[in-house]
Design a protein that fits this description.
The chain is an alpha/beta fold and about 250 residues long. The protein has seven helices and eleven strands. Bound molecules: 1,4-dihydronicotinamide adenine dinucleotide and the ligand O=C(O)C1=N[C@H](C(=O)O)C[C@H](O)C1.
């Protein structure tokens, strides 16, 4: 756990009754962190409306909610001088701008995916794309049937990395139907929602009579919670600014 000795006095968990909120609470208990749970659906937690009255120096807020809730929590934390770890995905442009504004006040660390394996995948994809110019690229993400946003934040991070490695922007083609052959400059983006799948991401590169497939599969949400808490422990005490998960791994 990088920075554990400098870690927060308390972890503020928003969306505490959510899939990730519950994982974060369990991980905080395992690591011995004091916790403040924030939820609108748990009488044992505080409501977001009361958050400003409860934040204290030494807190770090960890947010895995939904954009419409997240931005309020982030603003409240920033106004209170509390660092923020953001795992929530699915923001629009205005939401992205709000996060950047908060990072002018406090340290903000944001990642679409806190699994360390995804950070390795992102690096491998960049290397593969650079090594295989002209190969067709397809990105597929698969998640549980309750996921609202599509494509996943992780898939968007992968796509941004592909563009960066190529030095140009591919046209993101979300599925195909009817007479619809592949055109130059496209990257296929495919989204699947089924069962309780925790998160799978596949990048396929095809050309020159060969296919390279790079895949990551999260087998538990605990992997995301562990990475987010590593980030919270690392972020405590840092200067204001916008940080990324790769800054600490
Ligand atoms: N960065 C990462 O490593 C990961 C990111 N995520 C992202 O985290 C977010 C949450 O995912 P899940 O925990 O599966 O969702 P969830 O639906 O299980 O939990 C969302 C939580 O937010 C709360 N919430 C939603 N709208 C609210 C509102 N308007 N006001 C107050 N609270 C509100 C809900 O009560 C719930 O506790 C999603 O954006 C997902 O993509 C999920 C897993 C890993
Ligand atoms: O909603 C989820 O579950 C996940 N969302 C994140 C994303 O949108 O990339 C990360 C992870 O894949 C799980």
């Amino acid at each position: 756990m990088p920075g554990a000795e400098l870690g927060p006095d308390r972890v503020v968990v928003t969306g505490a009754t959510g899939r990730m909120g519950e994982e974060l609470l369990a991980a905080c208990e395992e690591r011995g962190h004091d916790v403040l749970a924030v939820s609108e659906s748990d009488d044992d937690a505080i409501s977001g409306a009361d958050l400003a009255d409860h934040l204290e120096p030494g807190d770090v807020l960890v947010d895995f909610t939904l954009p419409e809730a997240s931005l309020g929590y982030v603003e409240t934390a920033a106004d209170a001088g509390v660092p923020v770890v953001i795992g929530t995905t699915g923001y629009d442009g205005a939401g992205e701008a709000s996060i950047e504004e908060a990072a002018e006040q406090v340290p903000v660390l944001r990642a679409s995916n806190f699994a360390r394996g995804i950070q390795a995948l992102l690096g491998a994809v960049r290397e593969a794309v650079a090594a295989l110019p002209g190969y067709d690229v397809e990105v597929t993400e698969t998640h549980h049937n309750g996921k609202r946003d599509a494509p996943s934040g992780t898939a968007l991070s992968i796509l941004d990395g592909i563009d960066d490695a190529r030095g140009d922007e591919l046209d993101r083609k979300y599925g195909r139907e009817g007479v619809d052959p592949r055109e130059d400059g496209e990257v296929g983006v495919h989204v699947r929602r089924a069962g309780g799948i925790k998160g799978e991401h596949e990048v396929l590169l095809a050309g020159n009579e060969e296919v390279l497939t790079l895949t990551h599969r999260a087998e538990s949400r605990g992997v995301f919670a562990a990475g987010a808490l590593d980030a919270a422990e690392w972020l405590a005490g840092r200067e204001a600014g916008l940080y990324a998960f790769e800054d600490l791994i």
